[in-house]
Amino acid sequence: MAMIDRKGIWTFLLLAFGITFVYEGCLIASGMSMNFGFSSLGPMPPAYAPILIGLAMWVPAISTVIVVKFITKEGFGVTNFRIGALKPYAVSALVIPAVFAVIYVLTWLVGLATPDWQLQSLRHTLVVKGIDTSHLPDPRMVLPGIFCASLVMGPVVNGLFGFGEEFGWRGYLLPKLMPLGKWKAYTLVGIIWGLWHAPLILAGFNYPGHPILGVLGMIGMTTAFGLYINEMTLRHRSSILAGWMHGAFNGQFYGVWRILFPNADALLGGVTGLVGMLVWAALGLAVARRTQAPSGDSPGTFVEHGGPANGSQPIRSETNSTSSAAGSRR
Predict the structure, then answer these.
(1) Residue 1 counted as domain residue
(2) At residue 299, does pLDDT exceed 60?
């Protein structure tokens, strides 16, 4: 049976889940609305609510620091805390918005949503909330403006919060689970990542009206998107890249697509639904096909598809490169 660092993993999970559930439980108990979409149902959350939610995203990072510094005392070399090559940052910043476009076009084509080109739903929601819409710019300016802003602000600004999660999920937990095998590790991280969102989902976040199915949907979404972000993180050995990709994802998730497709079925259509899961899974599996584990190597070792025949060098996850990096980052 594969040996894993049970002490480190369980301590990390207890901290990440315990702190998050208590903190988010307090937010929910305070009566703060989780209506972050463009639904007219329920009160709009206060302007500072996204910051409060964003702070919870740093709990996995804090938990990682506590574990590697005070529990296992192995140092930050195990976390892939490095920038790495710049090309994957540019590639992922373009791929992720493109995938969102594919997801919502497919959602439209299968009849699970229709685009609101005139932003009638947004206008109606703002009116219900008591906001004057008479000076709202023309949709032909609003939609491209929001989309272009999300391309830059998403990975940069949201990436600061995204790294808080990814330093834990992809920086610490994923390499620690890789001795179980690639697909077991990917599946476990996806399930854990999704369950970590459970308090907010149960309170109406992302899947309003679907508390239980919403938690299952969130697990499906994090597992499917996780295939892509896991592959990129291990290939380039960078949890900073994972944070960047998480930020790019959130920039699109809360950007133009929810405005343009406000009534997309949360469980079936859009990025939260079955359509999104299938598209992300397809992309992740396609990227995974370019990376293979050679026979005889440990589960955390990967090389580009085709191996040394094309001159590529072995690409190793931090599970196999800890010894060389830990000394310089303690």
Answers:
(1) no
(2) no
Name the DSSP class of 226: H
pLDDT of residue 309: 34
How many C-beta atoms surround the C-beta of residue 77 within 10 A? 20
**What DSSP designation does 304 have?**
E
Query: Which residue range(s) make up the domain with 49?
Result: 6-326
Contact 105, 256 (CB under 8 A): no
pTM of the model: 0.86
Domain count, the chain: 1
The per-residue pLDDT for 114 is: 94
List Cα–Cα distances, 237 to 88, 181, 275, in angstroms: 11, 17, 29
The answer as to whether 302 is a domain residue is yes
Is residue 271 included in any domain, yes or no? yes
Confidence of residue 130 (pLDDT cuts 50, 70, 90): confident
pLDDT single digits (tens) 10-58: 999 999 999 999 999 999 999 887 766 655 455 667 778 889 999 999 9
Residue 273 tokens, joined: 């639904």
- Answer yes or no: are the C-beta atoms of 300 and 179 closer than 8 Å: yes
Q: Is 307 left (phi over 0), alpha (psi -120 to 50) or beta?
A: left
Token digits of residue 301: 């070792």
Q: Using alpha carbons only, what angle is made at residue 166 by residues 160 and 168, rounded to the nearest 5 degrees? A: 120
The angle formed by the CA atoms of residues 202, 205 and 206, to the nearest 5 degrees, is: 115
